[in-house]
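Ticket 4471: requesting a sanity check on a complex prediction with adenosine-5-diphosphoribose. Repro inputs:
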Amino acid sequence: MENEGALKKLAGWIDDGGMVVFTGAGISTESGLSDFRSPGGIWDRFNPAEFTLQKFTASAETRRNFWRFYHENWKVSRAAKPNRAHLAIAEMEKKGKVNAVVTQNIDELHQAAGSSPEKVLEIHGTMWKVGCLSCGDISPWEDFFQLLEEEKEIENCRLCGGLLKPATVSFGQSLPADVLNEAQHQCTQCKLLLCIGSSLAVYPAARLPEVAKNAGAKLAIVNREPTPLDRIADVAIKGEAGEIMNKVLSLLA
Ligand code: APR
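Returned structure tokens:
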């Protein structure tokens, strides 16, 4: 495999411990899920401008489109299984090499692969819960999936009458402050920030690898395409996340 030298360097840094893994949708494509910005990705099929919090709260039509999107997304994602990249990260945690997994993903495949839930920081929330935008009440997704299967309207919050929305962070919506604070803290403490499958195009998430680098960590990027942070990375490895992470796992001491 090309990148042999970079893979060995990365494996050595992982062996030293103190790693934070930062992941994006590209780590889940080998599980059959679309990413956002690859050709044919979600934002090729849906208009991101329609998926803002402002539009969701302002228009019943937008809310119907949101629920239609999640109805499809739940159907596809519930069948998805963790792939070799998720499994390698869980294995590295078992070896004591992972301080935290900061993920932009909402699919919970890291937890399904065996990463400890308390170490997985979901800075863009999760698709497997539905929350009230007013009182914060949280419900499981299944009830809403069933309503959508029966082509029923999604009612407002049964406790306060507020609007219900999948518990993911939409454009224009704040990231969960407690999760983001812990992610920032982990990035300032780590010795290695390993970024996998992200275009590093969306802020504030994409600032976190720079926070780690500026705090003295090594920065490693594994991605199919170049990213804006390749220029400051200690290693930038191009290719498929599953194959690369499997290879790196095999090179660990
Ligand atoms: N292996 C390696 N890289 C891959 C693979 C793969 N199997 N599949 C896709 N990629 C790369 C793509 O080339 C792309 O650069 O992963 C990256 C995914 O980038 P995006 O689709 O932009 O996803 P992400 O970076 O997670 O987006 C961030 O944007 O729309 C918001 O909230 C959404 O959390 C998401 C955020």
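Notes from triage: Strands lie at 19-23, 98-103, 120-122, 125-132, 138-140, 164-168, 192-196, 218-223, 235-238. Leaving this open until the requester confirms.
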